[in-house]
């Protein structure tokens, strides 16, 4: 189903002005594929763009979760101190959701859609070459591209060397800004995890309440069957309770569509950010250990100073990239939190307003009857 | 709505206080119980002067039970108002099922007052002297009603009950079943509602701790957290009010039992009547058989007399005379039982009609008060979430 660019703008807000956007991505149409070895789901990724670097203005490809994971890893490797948006998890342990249940697939689809759009809106990541290939290459092209470049083993080698050279390095010369960021992230991470748990708890309680309410209304209807005079009142109460029951179902849906996914994303973000801060520390650590080594090996000073120069540049780049991205992330986080919690409040308001209207109209109907009764009693 | 001439119009009755007491019971074992203060106030007019008279005395729940048993037995044609529950039932988790719990004691105090007012406004019951002395005099005749009550609880097959009583019995069974079910589910709903509100209270602390590390969002978070605390706390009052609504329904749950008692009394009388009529019929038949010498129905006596020889005419005459006396007695008894039965049906039905009107009025009002409670709860919710929304939008 083709989606117009303007409707894509409405799908979620960003503080970047919509008119400046020249890349629009949707993820939809999950499809099941069954082969001899495995069963997996692919999603349709549609890209519409006016950028010159793209050969065409419209692309349609199918991607599976593995492909998204590959993209994320490539982006992390290319930009170690940029904040790569979170990917939905591989498995979901809690909630006993079946691996391929409709609910699971839909939740994942929405998260994947957000993932790509966040990359598209990122001032640096949006121009990443692997990102472009992800959006445009046909299945076989992507496979062959994936096989190129540093393999898994060599990537692992880099990491091992980095760890070996820095150990706990990068922390003692860490600029104040990044210590502040670390402290902030530790607290933020704690709080966001607690909030995530609270939100799930609220959802669970609301669902239990809904289940009991479903039984509550019909009892009044049952009762009305053995009464005459008060049958109408009883039926009225039954109808009010049923309406409130439906309203609470809507309230639950609002939570699961909005608050729960956002909090979950920021739980993932907190892990990502801790990782980014560690990688910055590691890069700093490489520089620090080389500087320390220089102090002990005077004769090869010249060789070292070129290497140190490169590392100093690397550290400066990493720090600047992270600082800029951090500010951007904080802005977006504030925006997301504000709109999500406002939405939660609006959801609850709508719920209470609906229930209020229901009960008020019942009350009005009852007091009218009472007045009629009293009038008829006065008559001789 | 009280009858103009009844006690409730002349005397103010309240159960104003409850007190924990310890004492020794009949088996000399120490026990703790609650005593309730009954206060009465009325105007005494004497020598063209009016004075306010005040009286008060303490009674415990078991004494109220004695009073009610007495009324049930003495006025079997009346739907006697029920007492509040003996033990806390239909509780949801927060409420204690403990009889000593202050909330339970308070609700029981209200229930006992309601009971006294119901009796005092009943056209027949309010005139009872024992009831009057229950209110005003320490001496209360210790009334043992067990055996008569047991009779009311028995079941037996009646051939021709008044159809209206059969219908009423079905109605009271249905009423009891549906109100029990409703109260059970209501308790579960209350439990869940409590959970929803209280969990929101967890927001307050997290928001407060989070606001400490935020610059721009801090204020909004902190004040929103405060509103979430208010929201979580508001459920306690809401559910306490709902307990009073549940008590109103419970009263009619117990009234169903009182209705059934009246039906059973009718059955008892009808059974008695049918047995007496049956007995009379069989005696008449025996008499006829003896007089005419024919045996229409098989009887052991007939067989034995065939086997062991007939009776002498003198013996037969004596028997017939005895039977004729019994038959006359029986017919008189049957007449008076019939009259009793019809009187019972008439007066019982009058009270049942009164009860029906009272029930419809009370239940309708209870449902309206339930709606009012829901409306109040919604308005509180709207206020809190409007405030919270404002705080969130300023984050």
TrEMBL record, chain A:
GO CC entries: early endosome; phagophore assembly site
PROSITE patterns listed in its UniProt record: PX (PS50195)
GO molecular function: phosphatidylinositol binding
Tree of life domain: Eukaryota
Domain PX as annotated: residue spans: 21-142
GO biological processes: autophagy of mitochondrion; endocytic recycling; piecemeal microautophagy of the nucleus; protein transport; reticulophagy
SMART domains: PX
SUPFAM superfamilies on file: BAR/IMD domain-like, PX domain
Record key words, sorted: Protein transport, Transport
Similarity comment: family membership: Belongs to the sorting nexin family.
Protein name (Swiss-Prot/TrEMBL): Sorting nexin 7
Organism: Buteo japonicus
Automatic annotation (TrEMBL), chain B:
Record keyword Coiled coil present: no
MF term (GO), any: phosphatidylinositol-3-phosphate binding
Keyword Translocase: no
Residues of the signal peptide: none
A single Gene Ontology CC term: plasma membrane
Chain ranges of the PX domain: 14-142
SUPFAM superfamilies: PX domain
Protein name: Sorting nexin 4
Species whose genome carries this gene: Buteo japonicus
Record keywords, A-Z: Protein transport, Transport
Gene3D superfamilies with a match to the protein in the record: Arfaptin homology (AH) domain/BAR domain (1.20.1270.60), Phox-like domain (3.30.1520.10)
Family named by the database record: Belongs to the sorting nexin family.
InterPro entries on file: AH/BAR_dom_sf, PX_dom, PX_dom_sf, PX_SNX4, SNX4, SNX4_BAR
Pfam families to which the protein is assigned, alphabetical: PX
An example Gene Ontology biological process: positive regulation of autophagosome assembly
């Amino acid at each position: 189903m083709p989606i117009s660019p303007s409707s894509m703008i409405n799908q979620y807000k960003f503080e970047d002005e919509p008119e400046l956007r020249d890349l629009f991505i949707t993820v939809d149409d999950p499809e099941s594929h069954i082969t001899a070895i495995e069963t997996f789901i692919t999603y349709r990724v549609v890209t519409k763009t006016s950028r010159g670097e793209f050969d065409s203005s419209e692309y349609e490809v199918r991607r599976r979760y593995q492909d998204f994971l590959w993209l994320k890893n490539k982006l992390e490797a290319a930009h170690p101190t940029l904040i790569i948006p979170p990917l939905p998890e591989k498995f979901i342990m809690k909630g006993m959701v079946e691996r391929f249940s409709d609910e699971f697939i839909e939740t994942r689809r929405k998260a994947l859609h957000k993932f790509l759009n966040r990359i598209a809106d990122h001032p640096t990541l949006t121009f990443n070459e692997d990102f472009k290939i992800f959006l445009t290459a046909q299945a076989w092209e992507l496979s062959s591209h994936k096989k190129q470049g540093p393999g898994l083993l060599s990537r692992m080698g880099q990491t091992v060397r980095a760890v070996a050279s820095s150990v706990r390095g990068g922390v003692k010369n860490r600029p104040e800004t990044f210590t502040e960021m670390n402290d902030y992230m530790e607290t933020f991470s704690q709080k966001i995890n607690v909030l995530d748990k609270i939100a799930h708890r609220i959802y669970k309680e609301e669902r239990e309440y809904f289940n009991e309410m479903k039984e509550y209304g019909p009892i009044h209807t049952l009762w009305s069957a053995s009464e005459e005079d008060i049958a109408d009142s009883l039926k009225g109460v039954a109808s009010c309770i049923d309406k409130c029951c439906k309203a609470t179902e809507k309230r639950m849906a609002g939570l699961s569509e909005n608050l729960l996914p956002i909090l979950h994303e920021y739980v993932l973000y907190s892990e990502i950010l801790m990782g980014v801060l560690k990688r910055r520390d590691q890069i700093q650590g490489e520089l620090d250990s080389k500087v320390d080594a220089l102090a002990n090996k005077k004769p090869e000073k010249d060789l070292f100073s070129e290497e140190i120069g490169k590392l100093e540049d690397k550290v400066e780049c990493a720090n600047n990239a992270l600082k800029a991205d951090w500010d951007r992330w904080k802005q977006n986080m504030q925006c997301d939190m504000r709109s999500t919690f406002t939405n939660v409040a609006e959801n609850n308001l709508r719920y209470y307003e609906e229930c209020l209207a229901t009960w008020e109209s019942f009350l009005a109907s009852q007091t009218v009857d009472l007045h009629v009764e009293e009038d008829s009693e006065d008559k001789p | 709505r009280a009858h103009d001439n009844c006690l409730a119009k002349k005397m103010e009755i309240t159960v104003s206080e409850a007190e924990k007491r310890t004492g020794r019971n009949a088996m000399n074992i120490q026990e703790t119980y609650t005593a309730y203060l009954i206060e009465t106030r009325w105007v005494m007019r004497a020598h063209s002067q009016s004075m306010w008279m005040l009286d008060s005395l303490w009674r415990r729940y078991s004494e109220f039970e004695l009073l009610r048993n007495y009324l049930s037995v003495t006025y079997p044609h009346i739907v006697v108002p029920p007492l509040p529950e003996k033990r806390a039932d239909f509780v949801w988790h927060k409420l204690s099922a403990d009889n000593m719990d202050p909330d339970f004691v308070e609700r029981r105090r209200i229930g006992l007052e309601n009971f006294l007012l119901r009796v005092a406004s009943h056209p027949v019951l309010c005139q009872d002297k024992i009831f009057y002395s229950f209110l005003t005099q320490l001496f209360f005749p210790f009334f043992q009603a067990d055996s008569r009550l047991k009779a009311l609880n028995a079941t037996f097959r009646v051939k021709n009950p008044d159809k209206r009583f059969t219908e009423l019995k079905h109605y009271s069974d249905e009423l009891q079943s549906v109100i029990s079910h409703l109260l059970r589910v209501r308790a579960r709903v209350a439990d869940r509602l409590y959970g929803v509100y209280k969990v929101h209270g967890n927001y307050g602390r997290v928001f407060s701790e989070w606001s400490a590390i935020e610059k721009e969002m801090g204020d909004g978070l902190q004040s929103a957290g405060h509103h979430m605390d208010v929201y979580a706390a508001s459920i306690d009052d809401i559910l306490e009010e709902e307990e009073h609504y549940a008590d109103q329904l419970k009263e009619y749950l117990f009234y169903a039992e009182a209705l059934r008692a009246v039906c059973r009394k009718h059955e008892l009388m009808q059974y008695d009547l049918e047995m007496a009529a049956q007995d009379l019929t069989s005696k008449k038949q025996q008499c006829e058989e003896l007089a005419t010498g024919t045996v229409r129905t098989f009887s052991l006596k007939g067989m034995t007399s065939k086997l062991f020889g007939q009776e002498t005419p003198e013996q037969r005459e004596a028997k017939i005379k005895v039977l004729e006396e019994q038959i006359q007695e029986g017919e008189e008894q049957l007449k008076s039982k019939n009259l009793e039965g019809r009187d019972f049906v008439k007066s019982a039905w009058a009270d049942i009609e009164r009860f029906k009107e009272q029930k419809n009025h009370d239940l309708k009002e209870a449902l309206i008060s339930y709606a009012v409670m829901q409306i109040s709860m919604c308005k509180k919710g709207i206020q809190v979430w409007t405030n919270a929304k404002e705080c969130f939008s300023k984050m």
